[in-house]
Every structure is written in C-alpha cells, then in structure tokens.
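Task: sequence design from structure.
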C-alpha cells in the first residue's frame, strides 16, 4: 500500500489540473535499510527509520500513513499535533474509542484528514450514488454486500498484524470496505446482529515456521443490518474465501429499480429500471461521461484499475490540502465505520441485536 500511495503521488499531477504539485520529500520505514531501499525505488528525496522525524520535518505538509493498523493512532495524533494534513489508510484505528479520540483531535486542531476507502473513488460507485439520490430507483429497501478474498484461505497463511487480536480480523481488515460502501450508498446503519467465525483455529507464528499459535480473530463474518432510512441489509467479510481474489460486490434494491456491482468487473454498473417488458439489468460501461474517468482516457471501455482509484483519491486530497472542499471520507466518517464494525463484534459475542 505504501507503493500504491507513492505511485499515486507521482502520477497525479500528470493526470489532474491541481493547484499544487506534490513532492516526495521523505519516506519512513521500520529500519534504515528498508527506508533507503523504499526511497530509492519510489523516488523520495530522503529517508528515515524514525516516523516522528518525518512528521517534524518542516518540508512535509501531508503525512500519508500506510503502516500496520496499530500504528495508525500514534502516527496520526503526532501529525495532528504538528498541524499536518493526515492521509491514513483504513481502518482508522484498532478501536472506535481510539478512532473517536483521533477524530476529535483533528477537528479541534482544524487539520484536513482523509482515510483510504479508495473503492469509493470508482466513477461507477459515484454514478450509483447519483442514481440513488436522484430517486431514479425509488426508496431504498435493501442492501446486500460482500467483501471476500482468498489471501488467508490456507491454514498455513501465517500470523501478521492483521491477525493481532488488538486490531485484526476479517471484519476489521476488509469488512471496513464493505461497511463504508453500505454507508455511502444506503446511509447510516442503526442496528446490527452478526456471527463471527474462525475457520482455522491456529496459524504459523511467522512465514515458514512450524510452530503454530491460536487464532483469536474472525476469518469470516456475516451480519444483518438495519438502516436509518428503514432499509434492511446484510454484509459478509471473508478473507478465507477460496477462489475469490477481490469480490467486493453489492446489490441495492429500491421500490422502482435496482443496482448491482462487483469490483472484479469494476468498470461496469448494472441498472434495472423496472420498465415493463424489459426484465433484467442494463450494463453501464465506464467512460468519459463518468468523471473523473476522462482524466485517464478519452475513450469509453478502456477501463480504469485499482491504482487509478488511489490516484483519484490523492487528487482530491491535494485539492483539499490546497483549500478546496474536502470530499471525505474524513476521520469522522471513518470513526462511524469503526463504530459499526465494533457493534457487529459485540453482537457476535452476545448473540443479540446491537443498536448503534
């Protein structure tokens, strides 16, 4: 993800007309050697093994955080204290309480924040939201979402920061993406009931090790949702989904139509308008009519990719840093996502509905 951020900062000025052009000033990593190699490979002028030194650097205006989840809070809080713009990968923090502390600190300091829910930057997702808010498919009655990948589908996939009980698990790691999508399209979540399952009870302590340690986080979670607008729905977060690489998909039903999307075919949105005699979805293909697709290619059907979504995100971050409106999601929205996830985790422990 650090490489993805760096590539976006390098590419953005050639694709978007921005008030400022980013400079890759300094990169921090866990050791001097890692930092030096990263800076050389990604085009940073300097490097350090001390992230506090990066924050204290007077040339740095934007701090981009792609560290493990447990480090998001301390790095963000230091950057906020220094008055920097903070660009943090999801999840914002490991607990809702910590995320709220970060949010309130940022709001009190008046600093710009953005969180890397980059799937929301897809022009097809924005088109979906426009269709929903216009009333074209009527009142929203249902949302069904899934984020399933296979990178933990093997029982020998080792422990990492993702499986740390303090801030890991499938629901936190990838469930935050589908939860943010549900909120973006269907609105605030008011009540949840969830079931969290650990598929593999032990995993190797590190790559190549024979010693195994217990797994204390979920590999798969299913949740039922109730929304503020009266709609009902469900989500699945599953990082052990055999054969799935990036199944971030959803369907939304309304009283006059429906929408469907899959990130595995991210340049398509499917719309059912309810026209008599025309059963089935109509496929809408991404093109210049769906901003900011045209910044990348003047011809429809040539397709954006995952890294392009991060370039769009960085373009909006830089514009916000320069003083234009911040489109979010900011720390406040990321806190609401974290709060929804923790409600699901509490529900899984209690077996009961939990109100937010």
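Answer:
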């Amino acid at each position: 993800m650090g490489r993805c951020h760096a590539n976006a900062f390098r590419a953005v000025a050639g694709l978007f007309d921005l008030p400022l052009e980013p400079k890759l000033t300094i990169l921090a990593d866990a050791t001097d050697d890692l930092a030096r190699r990263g800076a050389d490979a990604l085009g940073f002028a300097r490097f350090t093994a001390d992230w506090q030194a990066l924050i204290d650097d007077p040339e740095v205006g934007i701090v981009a955080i792609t560290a493990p989840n447990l480090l998001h809070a301390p790095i963000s809080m230091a950057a906020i204290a220094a008055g920097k713009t903070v660009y943090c990968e999801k999840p914002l923090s490991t607990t809702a309480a910590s995320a709220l502390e970060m949010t309130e600190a940022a709001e009190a300091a008046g600093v710009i924040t953005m969180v890397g829910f980059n799937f929301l930057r897809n022009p097809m997702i924005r088109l979906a939201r426009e269709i929903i808010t216009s009333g074209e498919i009527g009142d929203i009655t249902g949302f069904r979402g899934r984020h399933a990948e296979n990178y933990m589908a093997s029982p020998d996939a080792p422990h990492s920061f993702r499986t740390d009980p303090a801030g890991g698990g499938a629901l936190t790691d990838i469930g935050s993406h589908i939860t943010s999508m549900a909120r973006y399209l269907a609105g605030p979540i008011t009540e949840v009931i969830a079931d969290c399952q650990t598929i593999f009870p032990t995993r190797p302590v590190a790559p190549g090790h024979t010693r195994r340690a217990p797994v204390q986080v979920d590999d798969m979670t299913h949740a039922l949702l109730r929304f503020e607008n009266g709609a009902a729905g469900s989500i699945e977060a599953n990082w052990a989904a055999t054969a799935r690489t990036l199944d971030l998909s959803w369907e939304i039903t309304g009283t006059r139509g429906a929408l469907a999307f899959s990130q595995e075919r991210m340049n398509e949105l499917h719309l059912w308008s309810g026209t008599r005699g025309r059963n089935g979805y109509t496929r809408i293909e991404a093109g210049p009519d769906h901003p900011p697709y045209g910044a990348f290619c003047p011809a429809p059907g040539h397709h954006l990719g995952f890294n392009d979504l991060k370039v769009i995100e960085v373009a909006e971050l830089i514009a916000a840093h320069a003083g234009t409106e911040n489109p979010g999601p900011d720390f406040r929205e990321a806190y609401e996502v974290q709060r929804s996830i923790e409600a699901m985790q509490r529900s899984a422990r209690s077996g009961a509905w939990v109100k937010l």
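The chain has two domains: 2-118, 119-301+337-355.
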